[in-house]
Design brief:
This protein has 18 helices and 14 strands. It is of the alpha/beta class and about 475 residues long. The mean pLDDT is about 95. The protein binds nicotinamide-adenine-dinucleotide and uridine-5'-diphosphate-glucuronic acid (UGA).
């Protein structure tokens, strides 16, 4: 133990990638390991400038509690920089925390796009002048460690690089809590002496705040694959409950009551059984697609089809919700004013990557609706950019996209006029701010009948009905 403490004292750790994972992870590390120096580097200068901003409201991402930690450790043992080369050279441990999206077209469609990951590894290899421990923090396909080994051996055959897999399980919106009190930390490594030494060094960094029994060590491939499987299992639970929500709507059973009853079985558990408009975000779908791709690649079609079912139910759920809205207007929403509440893929984040809101709003607009879109944290700029990319990918020309965008306003919800002549309110993100809106006053200015489509099951429907609203809730007849 003494030996490791000494090592920790002189340790410099670098994270390449200053995004939703790289920064919260290194910030929490820095908070718990004051003797270690942490440098977060990125090719995006604008982002790094924002991470260095004195005004904490200008940080590039919104994650509850992150600003306080940054305020505490930035400039002490946590630094942000675009000087990637210098920081790699001086660090003994390098985390690769870059984005690994899905490939969208071509022969490798739906596999993991490892171009950032590989570029990053090549750059690390080129500028390294001493042995290093390389940690895969990005989510990558099983056997990606072999790609890293090959890159390092080819570019710097005289240096030793130990590869570790240390996937991240944080969820946005609760990242700081998840990092402080994780269910587990997973570290995969080879079993030779140098790899075990590297693994134990990382274990000792984590041991500054994580109980040893929560640190699981495995081989490299198990660690890489466990990350994909964890996200697939979470997605599967959401699709399972969403599939039953459709059955509830036609039978009169109530999905919330079912989730409670089923989840009370300790073998099943109650988490991730919240029926909704479908899961969004940058990872569940991408990691599922990757698992499906890998299963097909290894000739396991039945396995691929099984997981494909989870994705299909997710699309089905979102489509069902759109159809429900259209049905209430007899299929005609042309020139209907509709208020969309919520753009982020879940509450407590400003992230809208792959948010179900995008397809739902885009569909309503293409059918002629006029929308006012509101979110508590997602900027107007990002909403416009999400919709523009969505329509462009669907093949709409720029003129049509501009025409669609002209049908949107972005007024605030605390101004009752925002709801003037609105035919419907559609809740797409479970922000607590939407629970306390003055629905009495809002009803008075809406056109009649006034609909509420609660895609997140956050509102009290009997109260709303007593005001006069016509309500639709997922999973309830
Ligand atoms: P992100 O897009 O927020 O951040 C990635 C950053 O990497 C960007 O700032 C980008 O500029 C930078 N980058 C890309 N290539 C680079 C290079 N060659 N050199 C330097 N910087 C480079 O992505 P994220 O959400 O933080 O996700 C990162 C990885 O972590 C992904 O593999 C993701 O699957 C995984 N993950 C994400 C979450 C999450 O909640 N977002 C949770 C667990 C795991
Ligand atoms: C998810 C996993 O929860 C993390 O463990 C993982 O590290 C991360 O992906 C990743 O690899 O990026 P995240 O996508 O941030 O985290 O958010 P979740 O809380 O998992 O929610 C994902 C989506 O599922 C959201 O749209 C959410 O609204 C939806 N959801 C979640 C439901 O519809 N019902 C639920 O019961 C839970």
């Amino acid at each position: 133990m003494g030996k490791f403490n000494l090592l920790l004292k002189n340790l410099k750790i670098c994270s390449v990638g200053a995004g939703y994972v790289g920064v919260p992870t290194m910030a929490v590390f820095a908070d718990y390991c004051p003797d270690v120096e942490f440098n977060v580097v990125d090719i995006n200068k604008e982002k790094i400038d924002k991470w260095n901003s004195d005004d904490l409201s200008k940080l590039p991402i919104y994650e509850p509690g992150l600003d306080d930690i940054i305020n505490k450790v930035r400039g002490k043992n946590l630094f942000f920089s675009t000087e990637i080369e210098n920081n790699i050279r001086k660090s003994q441990i390098i985390f690769i925390s870059v984005n690994t999206p899905s490939v969208v077209t071509g022969k490798f469609e739906n596999s993991s796009d490892l171009s950032n990951f590989k570029k990053c590894a090549e750059f690390i290899a080129k500028c390294s002048e001493s042995d290093k421990i390389i940690v895969e923090k990005s989510t990558v396909p099983v056997k990606s460690a072999d790609i890293l080994k090959k890159i390092f051996k080819t570019i710097k055959p005289d240096l030793k690089f130990q590869i570790l897999s240390n996937p991240e399980f944080l969820a946005e919106g609760s990242a700081i809590d998840n990092l402080r009190f994780p269910d587990r930390v997973l570290i995969g490594s080879d079993k030779d002496t140098s790899s075990i030494f590297a693994r134990d060094l990382l274990v000792n960094v984590y041991k500054n705040w994580i109980p040893k029994q929560k640190i699981i060590t495995t081989n490299l491939y198990s660690s890489e694959l466990s990350k994909l499987v964890s996200n697939a299992f979470l997605a599967q639970r959401i699709s399972s409950i969403n599939s039953i929500s459709a059955l509830c709507e036609v039978t009169g059973a109530d999905i919330s009551e079912i989730a409670k009853a089923v989840g009370a079985d300790s073998r099943i558990g109650g988490k991730y059984l919240k029926s909704s408009i479908g899961f969004g975000g940058s990872c569940l779908k991408k990691d599922l697609l990757n698992l499906i791709y890998l299963s097909n690649y290894y000739g396991l079609k039945e396995v691929a089809d099984y997981w494909l079912g989870v994705l299909k139910i997710n699309q089905f759920q979102s489509k069902r919700f759109i159809n429900k809205i259209l049905k209430c207007f007899n299929g005609n929403v042309n020139n209907k004013h509709i208020n969309i509440l919520g753009w982020a893929f879940k509450q407590n984040t400003d992230d809208s990557r792959d948010s179900p809101s995008i397809a739902i709003a885009a569909h309503l607009i293409t059918k002629g609706a006029i929308l006012n879109i509101h979110d508590v944290k997602v900027s107007k700029f990002n909403i416009i950019s999400d919709l523009s990319s969505f329509w462009k990918n669907k093949g709409f020309c720029s003129e049509k996209v501009s025409e669609f965008l002209d049908r949107i306003t972005f007024k605030k919800t605390n101004d009752i006029d925002t709801f003037n002549n609105s035919s419907a309110i559609v809740i797409l993100t479970e922000w607590k701010e939407y629970k306390v809106l003055n629905f009495n006053k809002i009803y008075a200015v809406m056109s009649k009948p006034s609909f509420i489509f609660d895609g997140r099951k956050i509102l009290n429907k009997s109260k709303l009905k007593s005001i006069g609203y016509k309500c639709f809730e997922i999973g309830k007849n």
